[in-house]
Amino acid sequence: MPVQFLPEMSKPPVAEVVCGAFFAPLDELDGLSLGAYWAERRADFPERRLLPAVLDSVDTTIEMGLPPLRSWMISESEEYIVQLQRDRFYLNWRAARSQRYPRFHNTPGSRGIASLLSEEFARFSEFCERAARERPTLVQADLSKINTLMYGEHWKDFNDLTAVLPILKGMDTAIDARTPEVNVQLIDQRDWTTMIKVQSGREQDGEKRALIRLEIRVQGPLSDDSFDATFDALNERINAAFLRLVPRDQMLVRFGGRG
After folding, report:
1. Per-residue DSSP letters for 202-234?
2. For each of the chain's 259 residues, which pLDDT tens digit applies?
3. How far does the chain reach from its first CA to its final CA, in angstroms?
4. Which of 186, 104, 200 is nearest to 150 (CA)?
5. DSSP reduced 3-state for 165
6. Is-contact 140 219, C-beta < 8 A?
7. What backbone phi and psi angles, to 5 degrees, belong to 155?
8. In angstroms, rounded to a whole number, what is the distance separating the alpha carbons of residues 19 and 90?
9. What confidence score (pLDDT) does residue 48 get?
10. Can you tell me whether residue 45 is helix, strand or coil?
11. Buried b (16+ CB within 10 A) or exposed e, 16-50
12. Is residue 184 within 8 Å of residue 195, measured between CB atoms?
């Protein structure tokens, strides 16, 4: 089957991108170390926040009487967030202050998320070598793209929404509701894991408009030698899933697509 590409979209619905690199835990990478790294990067990320660590399972490790921590470093525009903890690194892009999606790869005159991800992880790895006396040993890559389909902008009623997302067809009649609340999850768990979530929601600010949140997440094995290539492959899988979910003609109409 020939490879299909997303059309160029002037108004892509992407609201957030989350890039994660998971590694074997570095026990010496504690809250104090993460604070020292923020001090080094404060010019690029003037805001910071401490939160509980993201845990895949129950973690009994206690540091100075506290649970494991996660550090957020936030850019001045609030567009980018670097999240750090002893076993993972995240780079988030989010449409803060109405920022437009910069694309995953570089485009003429614009730097893509992938380039920043590679640079930020390299700088973090160098810090780990100095602070924890070893570089992260990579084990898994995690990439999510979160799209928001806004009522009144991308769809006008549930029937119209099913033209954008045919996967939802018949759900209104199945439960005899004209505008059902949606919470659908699909998972394909093999060597590479793909997860798709379709959920109803509302804007946090402004008019509190109804929206549909479409998240596509892919995970796969990661190593130092395959860092850039792996995230490229995850991005291609997410784009392929989006192509299967949203008809091309709808992308052209709803998101200003060309080609």
Report:
1. E-SSTT--EEEEEEEEEEEE--GGGHHHHHHHH
2. 445 678 889 899 999 999 999 999 998 888 888 999 999 999 999 999 998 888 875 444 554 456 778 999 999 999 999 999 999 999 999 997 767 899 999 988 889 999 999 999 999 999 999 999 999 999 999 999 999 999 999 999 999 999 999 999 998 888 888 888 999 999 998 889 999 999 999 998 878 899 999 999 999 999 999 999 999 999 999 999 999 999 999 999 999 877 6
3. 19
4. 200
5. coil
6. yes
7. -155, 155
8. 5
9. 95
10. coil
11. bbbbbbbbebbeebbbebbeebbeebeeebeebee
12. no
Q: Residue 66: which H helix or E strand, with range?
A: none
Alpha helices in 91-191 (DSSP H): 113-131, 158-164, 171-174
pLDDT of residue 1: 43
Chain position carrying tokens 């899988």: 237
The phi and psi torsions of 54 (rounded to 5 degrees) equal -80, 125
Contact present, 26 and 128 (Cβ < 8 Å): yes
Helix (H, G, I), strand (E, B) or coil at 119: helix
Q: CA torsion 149→54→17→94, rounded to 10°?
A: 80
Token pair in block for residue 198 = 């379709």
* Antiparallel, parallel or unpaired: β 193-202 and 183-189: antiparallel
**100 alpha-carbon distance from chain centroid:** 15
Rounded distance, CA 164 to CA 161, Å?
Answer: 5
Paired strand residues for 144: 18, 217
Which run of H or of E encompasses 196? Answer: strand 193-202
Alpha carbon dihedral 96, 100, 106, 108, in 10-degree steps, equals -140
